[in-house]
Amino acid sequence: MRTKTETQKRKNVANTIIIALCLALVAYIAKGCYDNNLAEKKEAAAKEYRMNMRKKYSIINEEKVGTTTKISIDIDLKQRLNKVELEELGKFIKEEEAKYFKIAYIGYYLEELGYSNGYWATTHYTPTMQVWISNK
């Protein structure tokens, strides 16, 4: 038979375990709510990013060779971009418009230069990105 002290110790251990489990459950639930809010914020930020990037250009022409071999995309830029911005836009276009193609040629025209003068800049994926900006 157990003594009162042993019984009390067992009750204290059981109570400690129950409290720890409750705290873990509350923390798990709170983390889940936090993760959901964070995921929603990330999704909203990604959507806004895509919308802002799409405002910078419009596709003039697109030519595909095979279903995954090569794509050439002619882009009309709204304004001049520096090399870093052009790299970011090239990555965005590759991901959005040419995701499944091994080779992607992306050529950029500027309205101010006209379309008969050739590309103002390019970002080619063969398969790594190469950026070229003319001195026009």
Describe the secondary-structure layout.
Layout lengths: L3 H51 L2 E9 L4 E8 L5 H15 L5 E8 L10 E5 L3 E5 L3
Give me the number of helical elements: 2
Terminal CA distance: 96 Å
Query: What fraction strand?
Result: 25-35%
Strand order of the largest sheet: 1-2-3-4-5
Structural class estimated from helices and strands: alpha+beta
Oligomer: single chain
Number of strands: 5
The helix content is: 40-55%
- Overall geometry comes to rod-shaped
Q: Report the order of strands and helices.
A: HEEHEEE
Please tell me how large the radius of gyration is: 29 Å
The low-confidence parts are none
Q: Nutshell version of this structure?
A:
The protein is of the alpha+beta class. The protein has 2 helices and 5 strands.
Commentary on this structure:
There is one protein chain. Helix content is 49%, strand content 26%. It is an alpha+beta fold. It has a five-stranded mixed sheet, covered by helices on one side. It is rod-shaped. The relative contact order is 0.10. The mean pLDDT is 87.
Structural features:
136 residues; five-stranded mixed β-sheet; 49% helix; 26% strand; alpha+beta
